[in-house]
Amino acid sequence: MRANGNPPVAPVPDLFDYDLWTGPAPLRPYDGLPHIRWWRTFMEYGNGIVGDMCVHMLDTVRWMLDLGWPQEISSQGGIFVQKEGKSNISDTQSAVFEYPELNCVWQHRSWGAPADPEYPWSFKLFGEHGTLAGSTMQADFFPYEKGDPIHFDVLYEKEKFPEDVTEDRIELNAAPATRLHMLDFLNAIENNSKPVADVMNGHISTASCILANVSMAVERPLVYDPEKMIVVDDAEATKLLQRPYRDPWKHPLPDEV
Questions:
Q1: pTM over 0.90
Q2: Which residue has the higher pLDDT, 55 or 197?
């Protein structure tokens, strides 16, 4: 997820409106089409690996354990190893999302080998009776004492939906869940109800990851007030929650939305 290359600066092709694509973000020197992966390697356009990959696993764990806003968020990291390329997102980072009875801990490295080759990108829940490891491909429950391990494989629907196989750039492991979410969303519209993937939960998970990046930047733990939408007693961190916009773009302030 960290394309750490050094492509040369080049003229913007006539087919591409680079200024419009960049929008309110800083205008980087053009060094190739930013899609599909290249944009992710710059903080100007995204939120690094924490905002790209941690958000999915934190969202899953929060859903499984019925967790709301963290009480405190802290994060440390930086570019420790892969310093040769243009990428300015962290290659090493940890984040702690603190709750009353547990901590959710995220760690990533874009270098070296995974700590668990079976679960390179995953969550692990350590409970009273065992450990549950889960990814988008599989899950395993390992009991501490009594009982046998339980293994789950991802559900594919290639026979039921053969178009999955020919769809360009599809993630086959995600296709069944995507279909179910689409149907659930349409059902929510029809019945004026909340979908399973409620937008507020998506907001909490996303904002928590952004706060982790802010914590790393200011080098201290943060306590967020979701009602006032500020970092408590920390004007510097609160200011970092809103990115400056490049002229002539204007930020949609709350009273203008």
A1: yes
A2: 55
